[in-house]
Design a protein that fits this description.
This protein is α/β, with parallel strands linked by helices. The protein has a domain of 278 residues: UDP-N-acetylmuramoyl-L-alanine:D-glutamate ligase (3-Layer(aba) Sandwich). The protein is 33% helix and 18% strand. The strands form 2 sheets. An 11-stranded mixed sheet has the order 5-4-1-8-9-10-11-12-13-15-14, sandwiched between helices. It has a 4-stranded mixed sheet with strand order 3-2-6-7. A hairpin with a 5-residue loop joins strand 11 and strand 12. Helix 1 packs across helix 12.
C-alpha cells in the first residue's frame, strides 16, 4: 500500500468491484428477464467502480469528508480498470487499494431499467479473501470514522461466525475511532444465505457504533421466517404488516441490545429510520465522531421520508444515503439535519444512472435541503407518530420527545 498522503477524516473499507451498467433507451420499458435465447436491445454501457468502498467513499469525499478507500482487487484487466477509474475521481483514491497477485477482481453487471429496482449479476472475486491483513492499521489510526461495507458478499468476513470481521472492528475501536457497518443482502441460495446471521451480529456489533442495514437485509438476518413470509405477500400487504413501524421498533431494539449506539435502517423509497440507545454513556463512547451534544442523540426515533425527484437509476442509492448520514454526523449536525442530509444525498444520487456522479458537494446538498424541496409520502401507516413540518420528519412513539 502507498503511504498516507493527506489528512483523511474517514476510511471506507470492504467491498469494491467494477460495475458494468447497460443503459436502457427511453420507452424500452423495465421488463427484463433472463430467458434462454432472448435478446434485449440496450444502449451503451457505463463502466464505473461499485461496491461500498467506491460508492460510499467517493460520496463522502464529495460531501466534504476526506476519505481513504481500503479494498482489494486482482492483477487483471478489471483491476486495472478499477485503479484507472478511481484515479480519475481523485489522484489519491488508490492509496489504500491493494492489488493481489493471481486473484480475480470483483465485478457486477447491473441491470437497472428506469423506475424498476436494480438486479445484479455479481462475481465476488478478491473480496472473498479480504481480511485484517489487507488493512494497513497505520494508515487508519488518525481518522475519525471507519466504515465497512458489504460483508455478506465477502466470504472471509462471514465464515466462522464473523470472527475476522469482529477482529477488524475490535482493532478499530481500540484506536478510539467511531465504527460504522453497512450490509448487503445475502444470497439465500449460497453459503452466505445459510449462516447464522444473528450469531454473527452478536459477535460483531458490540464494537460497532452505527449500524446501517436495509429493512430487507436486517429482517433476513434477525427473523428469517418473517422475511420469507414478507416475500409471499403483495406489496400492499407488506405495507400493512409494517403499520406503525412495529417491525422497525422490534428490530432496532434487538440491534441496540446487541451493542450499537445507532441503528439506521434504509427503507428504499419510504426513506430512512433512526433509533438510538437510551444509554447516554454509550453515545458518549462512540469515539472520535461522538456528537458534541450527546443529549440530542439519546433515545431518539426518527423517520425521514425521501425527497421527491425523477429517478433515473438506483445504483448506489443506499451507499449515498449512508454517506450523507455519516457526513452529517462528522459535520456536527443535529439528528434531524443528519437524517435530511442522508435522504438528500440519496435523492441526488438517483437522478443519475451510475453510483456516484449524482452526488453533490456539501454546500449544494444543504442549499437544496433548505429550499422548498418536496418530500414523498411514506407508504405505510404511521399511527402514533408525529409529523414535524419544519424539519419534514416523523417522530416515533419511542422517541424521548
Amino acid at each position: 500500500m502507498k503511504s498516507n498522503q493527506r489528512n483523511y477524516k474517514a476510511v471506507a473499507a470492504g467491498h469494491i468491484c467494477l460495475d458494468v451498467i447497460p443503459l436502457f433507451p427511453k420507452g424500452s420499458g423495465g421488463h427484463v428477464s433472463l430467458q434462454p435465447g432472448k435478446l434485449f436491445v440496450v444502449g451503451p454501457a457505463l463502466m464505473s467502480t461499485g461496491g461500498s468502498v467506491s460508492n460510499t467513499g467517493i460520496a463522502l469525499n464529495r460531501l466534504g469528508v476526506p476519505t481513504l478507500l481500503v479494498a482489494k482487487v486482482g492483477d487483471d484487466i478489471y483491476g486495472k480498470a478499477v485503479n484507472e477509474i478511481l484515479q480519475r475521481n481523485g489522484a489519491d483514491f488508490t492509496d489504500g487499494l491493494r492489488t493481489a497477485k493471481g486473484e480475480t477482481t470483483s465485478y457486477s453487471v447491473v441491470i437497472s431499467p428506469p423506475d424498476v429496482d436494480r438486479t445484479f449479476l455479481h462475481c465476488p472475486g478478491a473480496n472473498d479473501t479480504f481480511g485484517l491483513s489487507d488493512i494497513d492499521l497505520s494508515q487508519v489510526s488518525d481518522v475519525d470514522l471507519f466504515h465497512f461495507g458489504y460483508p455478506p458478499i465477502m466470504r472471509k468476513m462471514y465464515i466462522d461466525d464473523g470472527r475476522e470481521l469482529a477482529e477488524i472492528f475490535h482493532r478499530v475501536r481500540q484506536m478510539g475511532i467511531t465504527a460504522s457497518l453497512d450490509m448487503s443482502m445475502p444470497d439465500s441460495t449460497s453459503e452466505s444465505g445459510r449462516i447464522d446471521w444473528r450469531l454473527l451480529l452478536k459477535n460483531v456489533l458490540p464494537n460497532v457504533d452505527i449500524f446501517l442495514p436495509s429493512f430487507d437485509e436486517i429482517l433476513f438476518m434477525l427473523d428469517r421466517s418473517s422475511y420469507d413470509n414478507f416475500q409471499k405477500v403483495s406489496e400492499g400487504e407488506r405495507r400493512k404488516l409494517s403499520a406503525g413501524g412495529v417491525l422497525l421498533q422490534k428490530m432496532s431494539e434487538d440491534l441496540i441490545g446487541m451493542g450499537v449506539a445507532m441503528a439506521v435502517i434504509k427503507l428504499g423509497d419510504d426513506g430512512l429510520y433512526l433509533r438510538t440507545t437510551a444509554d447516554k454513556s454509550r453515545v458518549a463512547a462512540m469515539g472520535k465522531s461522538t456528537p458534541s451534544i450527546t443529549d440530542m442523540w439519546v433515545n431518539r426515533e426518527l423517520l425521514a421520508p425521501c425527497y421527491n425527484v425523477d429517478v433515473v437509476g438506483t445504483t448506489g442509492a443506499g451507499d449515498s444515503t449512508i454517506a450523507g448520514f455519516l457526513a452529517g454526523l462528522i459535520h456536527g449536525l443535529a439528528p434531524e439535519s443528519v437524517m435530511a442530509s442522508a435522504v438528500g444525498a440519496g435523492a441526488f444520487n438517483v437522478e443519475k444512472e451510475d453510483a456516484t456522479s449524482g452526488v453533490p458537494t456539501w454546500t449544494e446538498l444543504q442549499s437544496r435541503i433548505e429550499s422548498d424541496w418536496p418530500k414523498r409520502s411514506v407508504g405505510f401507516d404511521l399511527t402514533g407518530w408525529k409529523w414535524y413540518s419544519n424539519s419534514k420528519i416523523w417522530i416515533g412513539p419511542c422517541d424521548r420527545n
